[in-house]
Amino acid sequence: MRQLPPEPEIEHLVTAGDPDPDGRPVESNVWIIANEDEAVVIDPAHDAELIADRLGDRQVLAILCTRAEPDQVEAVLSLAAITGAPIHLHPADLFRWPADDRPDEELRDGQRLVVGGLYLHVRHTPGVTPGSVSIYLPALDAVFTGQTLDADGPGAGADPQTVRDRLLDLPPDTAVHAGHGPSSTIGELVARV
């Protein structure tokens, strides 16, 4: 009898980019949803080689961008070249894509993607950018919010109403994995917002 691969897990990697105005390197969270054979990468930033090393020989099914940000695009394009994975971005952020190489696929509100038998649900959460999205993974009680929502609440430029309507309605135990900084839960954030 064929054994099924293990259920995907969430892996976390922090990459560092150019210094901010205070001279500190900008750190970004890279999220990998993977089992031993397949992976999806969310918001790869700064260091494609480091991310590729972490992925090993797993097949990368997709690179998901929660927004188009200049600090991510170079690493996104490099990781796509290394892995052969398609890049996914909401079409409202295409004007922000500073490269001649356009993303391969669109992320749309309500879209469902599958990795390792688990569904990832796309929620359009405009505010930080017009095409910002959050990726909800109910089977692992997690949402990946880019810069829309972090451990302190709505991110800079995020629309508070969008955050309330599109994210704070998730179950309280849902882990919030942001593009920068520590993770939180919906329950903790509802208590603060």
TrEMBL record:
Region (Disordered): 1-26
Superkingdom as given in the UniProt entry: Bacteria
SMART domains attached to this UniProt entry: Lactamase_B
Domain Metallo-beta-lactamase: 27-180
Database matches in Pfam families: Lactamase_B
Entry protein name: Metallo-beta-lactamase domain-containing protein
Organism name: Streptomyces tateyamensis
